From TrEMBL, chain A:
It holds the Pfam family ABC_tran. Keywords: ATP-binding, Nucleotide-binding, Transport. GO terms for molecular function: ATP binding; ATP hydrolysis activity; transmembrane transporter activity. Residues 10-229 form the ABC transporter domain. One of its GO terms (cellular component) is membrane protein complex. It comes from the Bacteria. The lineage of its organism: Bacteria, Thermotogati, Deinococcota, Deinococci, Deinococcales. This is ABC transporter. The keyword ATP-binding applies.
Length: 229, 389
């Protein structure tokens, strides 16, 4: 709020993560500052370079060694554990590589789950969840449990869930990593469509073809982050 | 926990439990058996309380005089000198006593409980009605003054059935003495049903207790004076005089102690059941670590996860507890069928307070068992639990 123009959107300031390892330390992420613009940012880099570490910090799953994460001016890591949970619920959507869904809930219930957490009345959240499932083309699978869905279907349900409360920021860690290329394309098409309305989508990927679809690219190598494009 | 609706949490907890229906069912069964055993054990005390308040509250003597009070139990030894009867009769006008009835009690023991009976000797001239005014003769005749010292008996309906006695049957009091049944009382659904009434001299002789009685039953003009009268008698004569409420509080004290013992026994079952719940809930948490991490990632607070796990534990224990009440009812019915047959009483009863206790204990069990799993679930680190794929 005090930050003026810099306050808008998702911003990493002097952000780093150093893990203790044996007698020494591992710099999983060296300090870097970056403002994520609206639109799709692809985070690319070889395995073990620090991509997931970056995403965990942006999401508030992990604490940074230095620096901070600002979302519309709010310092994510200055919040309490519960406060951060509430903040995620209100501002973030997530899609992981796999096992995204709550196994005891149907596809529809999974999609409405963020709204359940927010205390939205059942009828209202059902309606919204149905609309979102329709958007990802899975109306026919509403009553299926995650174990009864294919990998691609599960990812599409996860995307629908990530959109349940229309979040500012969408974080995805290799959402197509476990999918064949055809199914992956379908999921990607959905994700690239989500940048409308000034939403910030951060997508971690190994795949250069996927990265080519992005508006911006962030390269990570041995924990060093560089922006291009 | 945030804004989540309570009903949504219960629904989620239910889903969590029914995910592994067999394991959940077996665990609930553990609680069911534990709670049922507690219910049956404690219902015995409740039933006996009811019997005593209903029975003796209505028809017992207003004041009962004996040498050493109730501490000896229900049927005191005949150790009170019969001279006390005369002393009490002398006090009768002053204290407003309308009836002074000496009583000798003895237990006709047997290895087979159903063959045991209480022998109750009282002056034949005064008859059974002197102490139990509701007693009615169903067949044969009542005791009369002419029966004093003779070998005759009037018996309760239950005693007749259990000992296979009818009018004219012979009954051995012990090896030396036998009497003949001259009357059978109508069933009263009470303790009296299993009593055998004898002329006092007959029983004194049989027990070798000539000149001594177990107690003296007093009826008062105004039963509200019972406490004052009892105190006066205790002070003037070297005896214990007690009122009905003294007797009831004695019974209550004895029942409390036996409640504690019986609860202690069922506590073992309850603890084992609680450990089973803790184990099941903990396993559920371990198996769903990843899932809980996903919930936390999406935006569930740690307290939501804690509440969810605790609710699962409570729900599991509650289901087991309700099952335990139902099973316990069956057990109580079985106990009562047995004691009805034996003594004409319902020894066991499921009272509202026992129902509440059983449910309360179940919930407490669920709460305690759930604390540790809930804590570990709420503390999991999202990054660790989401893990590498
Ligand atoms: N909890 C941890 N403790 C110690 N070192 C860790 C921990 N988590 C990650 N690392 C290390 O940090 C580095 C970056 O890991 P990270 O998971 O961010 O890589 P990544 O770019 O996501 O790789 P991948 O493409 O294989 O998923 C790796 O060297 C990893 O071994
Ligand atoms: Mg990774």
């Amino acid at each position: 709020m005090r930050e003026g123009a810099a306050a808008a959107g998702l911003r990493a300031e002097n952000l780093s993560r150093i893990y203790p390892s044996g007698e020494g330390t591992v710099t999983a992420l060296a300090p870097f500052t970056h403002t994520f613009p609206a639109g799709l940012t692809a985070v690319v880099g070889p395995s073990g370079s620090g991509k997931s570490t970056l995403l965990n910090l942006l999401a508030g799953f992990d604490r940074p060694t230095t620096g901070r994460v600002l979302v519309d001016g709010t310092d994510l890591h200055a919040l309490s554990e519960a406060g951060r949970a509430d903040f995620r619920l209100a501002n973030y959507g997530f899609v992981f590589q796999s096992h995204n869904l709550v196994t005891i809930l149907t596809a529809l219930e999974n999609v409405e789950f963020p709204l359940t957490l927010a205390g939205v009345p059942r009828k209202q959240r059902r309606e919204r969840a149905r609309a979102l499932l329709a958007e990802v083309g899975l109306s026919a699978r509403a009553a299926h449990l995650p174990s009864q869905l294919s990998g691609g279907e599960a990812q599409r349900v996860a995307i629908a869930r990530a959109l349940a409360h229309d979040p500012r920021v969408l974080l995805a860690d290799e959402p197509t990593g476990n999918l064949d290329s055809h199914t992956g394309e379908r999921v990607l098409a959905l994700l690239t469509g989500l940048t409308r309305g000034g939403r910030t989508v951060v997508l971690i990927t190994h795949d250069p073809e996927v990265a080519a679809l992005a508006d911006h690219t962030l390269r990570v190598r041995d924990g060093e982050v560089t922006a291009d494009g | 926990m945030g804004n989540v609706n309570g009903s949504d949490v219960w629904g989620l907890a239910w889903r969590g439990l029914t995910r592994r229906p067999v394991r959940t069912l077996l665990t609930a069964l553990g609680i069911t058996v534990a709670v049922a055993s507690m219910v049956v054990f404690l219902s015995l005390g409740e039933g006996i309380r009811k019997v005593f308040t209903a029975e003796l509250g209505g028809i017992g003597p207003d004041v009962q005089v004996s040498l050493s009070g109730f501490s000896q139990g229900f049927a005191p030894q005949p150790n009170l000198p019969e001279t006390a009867v005369g002393d009490l009769r002398k006090l009768a006008p002053e204290l407003g006593l309308t009836a002074v009835t000496p009583v000798v009690m003895a237990v006709r023991g047997s290895l087979d409980v159903s063959q045991s009976a209480v022998l109750y000797g009282l002056p034949a001239a005064q008859g059974v009605g002197a102490v139990f005014p509701r007693a009615r003769v169903a067949s044969g005749r009542a005791l009369t003054a002419a029966d004093e010292g003779r070998g005759v008996a009037v018996i309760g309906a239950k005693a007749a059935a259990n000992l296979h006695l009818g009018l004219g049957s012979a009954l051995n009091l012990n090896r030396r003495s036998r009497v003949q049944v001259v009357g059978v009382l109508a069933p009263e659904s009470g303790l009296v049903d299993s009593f055998i009434f004898l002329p006092i001299r007959t029983l004194q002789r049989a027990e070798g207790a000539e000149g001594r009685v177990s107690l003296v039953a007093l009826k008062l003009e105004d039963p509200r004076n019972a406490r004052t009268v009892a105190r006066t008698i205790s002070e003037r004569l070297n005896v214990e005089a007690q009122t009905q409420s003294d007797f009831l509080s004695f019974v209550e004290r004895a029942l409390r102690i036996s409640d504690a013992v019986r609860f202690g026994i069922s506590l073992i079952a309850l603890i084992v059941g609680g450990l089973a719940v803790a184990n099941t809930v903990m396993m559920g948490v371990f198996e769903r670590t990843r899932e809980f991490a996903t919930l936390r990632a999406i935006g569930a607070r740690p307290s939501f996860v804690r509440t969810l796990v605790l609710t699962e534990s409570l729900l599991l224990a509650l289901v087991g507890g309700v099952g335990g009440l139902v099973l316990g009812l069956g057990g109580i019915a079985a106990v009562n069928a047995y004691t009805q047959n034996l003594a004409g009483i319902d020894a066991a009863a499921l009272t509202p307070r026992l129902t509440l206790l059983a449910l309360g204990i179940s919930l407490l069990l669920g709460l305690i068992s759930g604390l540790l799993p809930a804590r570990s679930a709420s503390r999991l680190q999202i990054t660790d639990a989401l893990g590498r794929v």
